[in-house]
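Here comes just one.
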Amino acid sequence: METAIEVRDLVVKRGKQQVLHGISCVVPRGSVTGLLGPSGSGKTTLLRAVVGVQIVGTGTVTVLGQPAGSAELRHRLGYLTQAPSVYTDLTVRENARYFARLYGLGATDADAAVASVGLASAATQLVGTLSGGQRSRASLACALVGRPELVILDEPTVGQDPVLRAELWDMFHTMAAKGTTLLVSSHVMDEAARCDRLLLIREGRLIADDSPTAIRAAAGTDDLAEAFLRLIKANTGNAGSTESGTRTNEGTAAR
């Protein structure tokens, strides 16, 4: 399978603190790859490095055959940040149409993107009046409007209800089936099972990189949450305290 993202020996430091410790991984094209890990583990830093907006110490990140951050990638990559990146004084539709114009696309494409994230009924609302979950979806519409080859999503389903979360994951897999590559960060364990491939990161180190089925087999358990705990224990010698434990199902975290 062709490679969409290749990360080799990536080291990132902030001041004197090392955030990523020699991360190496490959994300295949046309897949939904999940990046799992607790808060502060380095997920967002790794995503920023892939997008090309993170200053790195050493190592390389290659995206769609180009160095991360290359000008050639600007219209080939969509990026959803954790914080909604839309204009609060514009409506949902106006935001989508603005971003569509940046890609040389029209109103029809913008409206289709809004509908695809379940916001057609809120299209004329000012973003500033939306709930947090709706704002995230408005940002997602803007990230997808250009039909990018690669989509980087940082916690895209936080604050969404279970039905909408399921619909969004169905959409992600439909996109992947059509050739789009998605790299999705999450701490929700039932979302891990929805991915084609998983990257488990803890304290800036990659401790698992395989399919959910292979990770379960390697850990000797059918429970992904328990598999992650066993892998963490095998790699760190510490399964974690109750505070850093793993819970399953809705709203659960790989900790």
Notes: Residues 3-76+149-155+177-254 form a domain with the Rossmann fold fold (CATH 3.40.50.300). The longest strand covers residues 3-14. The longest helix spans residues 162-177.
